[in-house]
Design a protein that fits this description.
mainly alpha; 5 helices
Length: about 120
């Protein structure tokens, strides 16, 4: 089971509800989090509103950058696989051309070589 992640705005809204007089249990049920989590959020918020909940915002940017790079890697992998298959077909065609004997000259050119004219 992976850990749930909450945005900074979600956490601030939950703490504001506590500040408006809502009970810890009611806010915890509404937000579907453990009351201990709400205690921690409220403590972080009290320690410094501007500095509260810094982790998720930065992590979200890093995760989106990571996802973008993974998509790019996937696209480049597809392109490489496609180009490899095209190159393989070209090389097979060249090999087949090298194995096939060249077509003989036409009758007229063969006669010219032998010195005979029509």
């Amino acid at each position: 089971m992976s850990r749930r992640k909450f945005t900074k705005e979600f956490k601030q809204a939950a703490v504001r509800r506590l500040g408006m007089g809502a009970s810890m249990a009611a806010v915890a049920r509404a937000c579907e989090v453990n009351p201990n989590v709400l205690h921690r959020w409220r403590r972080e918020f009290r320690d410094g509103v501007d500095r509260a909940f810094p982790g998720l915002g930065k992590r979200k940017a890093e995760e989106s950058r990571m996802a973008e790079l993974e998509r790019k890697i996937g696209q480049q992998t597809l392109e490489i696989d496609f180009l490899k298959s095209v190159l393989q077909r070209v090389e097979e065609a060249r090999m087949l051309q090298g194995l096939q004997p060249t077509a003989p000259s036409t009758n007229n050119s063969a006669r010219k070589r032998n010195g005979k004219r029509l």
